[in-house]
Amino acid sequence: MSDSGFDQILRDLLTKREFSDLGFEDALLFFCKTVSDALRVSRVGIWLLNESKDALIGKLMWDRETGATAPGDDLTAENAATYLKAVVQDLVVVINDALTDPRCVELAQDYLPNSNVRALLDCPLRTFGGLAGVVCIENTGQPRLWSAEEISFATAVAGLISLTIEHNERVIAEKAARDLEDRLKLYTDLATDWFWETDTTFRFERLHGSRALDGQMPADYVGRKLWEVPILTPLAGTWDGLKKRVAERKRIFDFVVSARDSEGNLHSAEIAGVPTFDEDGNFCGYWGTAKDVTQRVQHELDLAASEQKYKNAARLAKLASWTWDKIDEKCTYCSPELADIFGVSVEEFLRRSSSWEEDLNWYHPDDREMYAEVSAKATKNKTGYDIIVRVVLDDGSVRTLHETTEPIVDSAGTLVAISGVLLDITDKADLQDRLKTQEERLKSIIDNISGAAYRVKYDKNFTSVYHSGGYLNLFVDPEATSTGWPNDQNLPTLNMDDADRRRIEKSLRRAVIHNQPYAIEYPVILKDGSEKWVSDRGRPVKTLDGNIELEGIMIDATEKHAAQEALAHGQRLEAIGKLTGGIAHDFNNLLAVILGNLELLRDEIDVPDQIDLIDSGIVAVRRGADLTRNMLAFARKSRLNLEVLDLNDLAGKAKNWIGRTLPANISVETSLLAGLWKIEADASSTESAFLNLVLNARDAMPNGGKMTIETSNVRIDEDYIESRFEDMEPGRYVMLAVSDNGQGIPEDILEDIFEPFFTTKPPGSGSGLGLSMILGFMKQSGGSVRVYSEPGVGTTFKLYFKALTSDVSKQVDPEIILPVSRGLARILVVEDDTGVLAVLQSTLTKAGYDIQTASSGDLARDIFEADQNFDLLLTDIVMPGALQGTSLAKTLRALRPDLKVIFMSGYASEATVHGNGLRPEDIRLMKPIGRSVLIQAIEKALD
Prior knowledge:
Blueprint: H1 3-16, H2 24-39, E1 43-49, E2 56-63, E3 68-70, H3 77-87, E4 93-95, H4 111-115, E5 117-127, E6 130-140, H5 148-176, H6 181-188, E7 194-198, E8 204-209, E9 233-234, H7 240-247, E10 252-260, E11 266-277, E12 283-292, H8 294-302, H9 307-317, E13 319-325, E14 330-334, H10 336-342, H11 346-352, H12 356-360, H13 368-381, E15 386-392, E16 398-409, E17 415-424, H14 426-447, E18 451-457, E19 464-467, H15 470-475, H16 498-514, E20 518-525, E21 531-542, E22 548-556, H17 558-604, H18 608-634, E23 642-645, H19 647-661, E24 666-671, E25 679-682, H20 683-699, E26 705-716, H21 718-724, E27 731-740, H22 770-780, E28 784-790, E29 794-802, E30 826-830, H23 834-846, E31 850-854, H24 857-866, E32 872-876, H25 885-895, E33 900-905, E34 923-926, H26 931-942
Parallel strand pairs: 24-26, 30-31, 30-32, 32-33, 33-34
Antiparallel strand pairs: 1-2, 1-6, 2-3, 4-5, 5-6, 7-8, 7-12, 9-10, 10-11, 11-12, 13-14, 13-17, 15-16, 16-17, 18-19, 18-22, 20-21, 21-22, 23-25, 26-27, 27-29, 28-29
């Protein structure tokens, strides 16, 4: 594109100002698209410097070919150190061939090849805070020699983006410090109404802008010199000054013309322009702007505007100005406001700024080098600069100044002077520091609570004014992110029952009517189907416009409610237990009397028929005694004769008699851990509990199946206990599990199976005290019982007994002595629980293995079909999708018969793999799996 084409685009940007009606993000996208189309490049992105100025954070990346918009990659010292060093120099970075340019040595490793980028053109973005980031223009496919016109165009657009970023930052700052609004307007009011161009005789060739307030159209000026337009008069009373500057081809500024409309109202416009030259240095004419300053001029006229009053206004605004003579290298003008800021007289300031070295002494030692570099660069490029810098006064105090300059060049283009303004922003800087500290404290408080702060309008939809990030991912959708929901939009409403919603609305209405705080607790359903309880506390507040808003905080009360429910359940069982124990105690006394008398009576009688009647009574008494023993076990009041037991002996001996007593269509397998810790428990009650579980497993498989008996050593920590609200101590436990692959227990009754007298068996087939007796015995023994069941898959009951502490010195703790992994092996890990998958990946990666993960059997199959180079498959058994762990192993072994496999399961490890024809060498692990156990299993499988 030609230079004039770029100029036309810039004029359109400045005159049409389409971006000014857009939001901040949309405006940035608009600029990216404009640059992409104008330069015909594939990608244009915007990166912003972080606060420490050592990384570029990807703000936006526009891909012209795909039309896709996404955040750019973050560039840090780790992946782009050399490139960052070039960018922070605050210069335009021109890279014609990125793959060979030394500034892209790190980018050439990943970033450039991945995006097919071959050439870069980076223009700095500057705000009043200095370098804020870069606009990165990326040419793909092949190197590109960037032309001067393209660089100039990109730099100009970068200036507009800088203004947009600065404007956005200013809007944010104004919300926190509205008292600085008037000062900021002096720097940000950059709106211009007309843009114009002249020929070499100063006759207008082109004008762009809306209708003038005096009624003239831009076309009315074309072909005329400014002083030839009849309706215009110079505010200074003469055109001589303008004509002289035009004749000398000098810059035009601060020249005001006035005109009256048809109703006699006076309108004023400020004319500014610069001479333009072609590549050979030939004068082409002027390019400039006209800005409506009617209100300013009218204000000055109303106040009998004069130079002194203007200076008074400047003093009131604390806006200082100065002029630096570049020929003599000294300050030639200092406004009184500038002298006041530095705490000296005008004469003293001029005397102490009579050379560059003396002037530099004003600046803070830590800022001098930076200030000198910025000034030297501006002098070299004949541009102005915008900088925030500190100065040290004679009394030792430090002031923060915002300094903005413009170059003054003569008709030959020589830089002859620099004109600048200063604003003392010390108070603003201090205020921003305090605001930042307060925001960080508030954010830290909110981020460290399991909840969300909010403020909403009290209307039908509870329109959002503010929500902290926790609202979405804690109470709506665990996978959601707050960045997609600006505060000025309605966030998704909470999913709850209508009855709860009406109750909440009633409480809020009462709080608003009585102007009092509210505290409500209610359940919500998250997008993933889980339920959470919310503790919502807040208050109504009245805004300045008289409307009512609600502000408060929402706390995740799910664990609190679960604990309350567990406590209530425990108290209910405790109450029933006390009642049951009392009844059993008294009933045992009665049975003792009856049994004793029947036995005495039997010794005295020799009539066979009567003896049979007595024997029937004794049998009934003994059945009653068994019933009371069960009741006492449930009430945790039965007498326990403690002795040291080996559960492997119990399970091993039981397999012999269980196999003879069970139906022929039920097979029994055992998986007994060698080196099982000893326990101390009541042998009779332990055997009774074990037998009860065996009989329940038998009844769950009326059509036959497989029963598994399993033992293992486990360690239970505080997290496990707290997550399940268990009443047990952390430490070492021995687990005895009985599993079946029968019908399973429906989820809706799973929580009721330990209730006394609850049974799913037909009338006369059971008392309903079996599981409650087991629970009572285990609690009395300091252990616990857990059940895992899935309809159609099977059920596993796990008994946890406290391990004898005396065995500690005799056992080698597998958690202390870790095996040394050989590493290098490539393992495919399949697990549908993302938390477990993350732990496995981290653990095995640190052990030196090469890990590839999959969240389902179906995905694992696809990965394996694409690349079969795996040494081992480590897979969960029950997962979503078509392929479960066992079927996944079969499928992959059809492709790789020698593939090693380790299975993991939350059920007893043997129970979930019956009938699948798995190999004897396959290893089965039961969750939770210790690190050493896992690595030992992997090394064993690889051997």
